[in-house]
Design brief:
Rossmann fold; alpha/beta; 289 residues; four-stranded antiparallel sheet; binds adenosine-5'-triphosphate; 11 helices; six-stranded mixed sheet; 42% helix; 2 domains
């Protein structure tokens, strides 16, 4: 079910984004927008360029061509500056500080929002103590929000998998983003954990944070998203509501591997299969001699 939302001004605007690695064009001339109040999905078969595109948005890669704007301003090409500007992300593989507590992990996520400098931190002056208390309070709020408050003192590595992924979201939220980018948030989850993640993402959106999510679980994506874009071989093939995208024949073909333009005809494939069958008969006969 797609929840009704009031969508507003663009939060993220990517224009003509292209990313080349040597001779390989991983992302080709992609225009893409996320508006406030929206949950937008990015899908595509393996190797379609989703993560590369994400990395272009979040400053990990400098796109070969194109621009990325957050709330109208071109983003700097440094991940920590992108986070500071208001875009936070999680990664395909969990990247928590395993030997730190749950609370400490969220506090680390707040560093882009605290103004206290090195000397203030070292001298632990009144400004630092006040900022530290405010950060602690906000981190605990986020742990309440994500359902992890009771585990604030546990080491991150001791959390079950689903809760580690929630903690990643809590840590990303600690930078007070206007846009949250989630890279395969339900990978490896059981159905209950996936359902809980869906609820959490709806709740994030209801807090006024736009969400962009890459995911392979189609049921999850089509339930969750107001809008979905499908990348294939680096290009945006289709974009629209969940209903439009899931019934688009080009999307179905891209996922099911239905023959594409330029693929060998059925008759050509039949010839190859016949030749292979003849070859295997010959070699079997050879073996029996
Ligand atoms: N750093 C890199 N250097 C060279 N080629 C890369 C690099 N990163 C990605 N690629 C290539 O770019 C293409 C797109 O990869 P990408 O990981 O973005 O796809 P994806 O849609 O995220 O795939 P998956 O769903 O499997 O994670 C692939 O052909 C990949 O091999």
């Amino acid at each position: 079910m797609t929840t009704d939302t009031t969508t507003g001004a663009p939060v993220l605007e990517a224009t003509g984004v292209t990313m080349r690695f040597g001779g390989l064009t991983a992302v080709r001339n992609v225009d893409f927008t996320v508006n406030s109040g929206e949950i937008v999905g990015l899908i595509g078969p393996n190797g379609a360029g989703k993560t590369t595109f994400f990395n272009c948005l979040t400053g990990l890669y400098v796109p070969t061509e194109g621009t990325v704007r957050y709330k109208g301003t071109v983003l700097p090409s440094k991940p920590h500056l992108v986070t500071k500007a208001g875009m936070a992300r999680t990664f395909q593989n969990i990247r928590l500080f395993a030997n730190m507590t749950v609370l400490e992990n969220v506090l680390v996520g707040r560093h882009t929002r605290t103004k206290e400098g090195l000397w203030s931190a070292l001298l632990r002056g009144p400004g630092f103590k006040k900022a530290e208390a405010a950060s602690h309070e906000r981190a605990m709020e986020l742990l309440e929000f994500t359902g992890l408050a009771e585990k604030a003192d546990h080491l991150a590595r001791n959390l079950p998998y689903g809760e580690q992924r929630k903690l990643e979201i809590a840590r990303a939220l600690a930078s007070e983003p206007g846009l949250l980018l989630l890279d395969e948030p339900t990978a490896g989850m059981n159905p209950q954990e996936t359902r809980a993640t869906e609820e959490l993402i709806f709740a994030v959106r209801d807090q006024g944070i736009a969400v962009l999510v890459i995911e392979h679980d189609m049921r999850f994506i089509f339930n969750l998203c107001d809008r979905v874009a499908c990348l294939v071989q680096g290009e945006k093939l289709v974009e629209g509501t969940s209903d439009v995208v899931q019934s688009d024949e080009r999307v179905i073909a891209a996922y099911l591997g239905t023959p594409f333009e330029g693929a060998p005809e059925d008759s050509a494939l039949a010839d190859v299969e016949a030749a292979e069958a003849a070859q295997s008969t010959t070699s079997t006969e050879g073996d029996t001699k």
